[in-house]
Amino acid sequence: MSSRRVGRFAVMLAAILLCVACGQIYRPVVIPTQLTPPTPANFHTVFGLDANVPGQPGAAVQIDVSGDSVVGQTPTDPNSKNVGILPTHLAVLPNQSRLFVASAGGMFTTGTDLVAAFSPSPDSRVGVGLGTVFDFTLPPGQTSGISAISESGGLVTATLSTPLGNNLQAGDLIAIAGVDLNQYNGTFPLASVSGATIQYVNPVTGLAASSGGTASVAALPVFLNTTQNSAMYVANYNSNSVAVLNLSLNAVSNTVPVGIHPVGLAETPDGRKLYVANQGSNTVSSLNTVDMSSNPVTGFSGTTPVWVVARSDSHRIYVLTQGDGQLVTLDTATDSVIGSIPVGAGANFAAYDSHLTRLYVANPTNGTVSVISTTGGANDTPTLLKTITIPGLASCATCSAGIPNQIAALRDGSRFYVASYQTATACPDPNIADLLGNPLPCVIPQVAILDANGLTVKTSLFLLAPPVFKATSSATPQPYAVAPIASCAPAATFTPGSTRFRMTTAAAADSSRVYVGICDAGAIAVINTTTSTIGTGSTNTPDTLVTDLLAPFSARPAGANGRPAPQNPIFLMTGQ
Question: pTM here?
Answer without folding.
Answer: 0.89
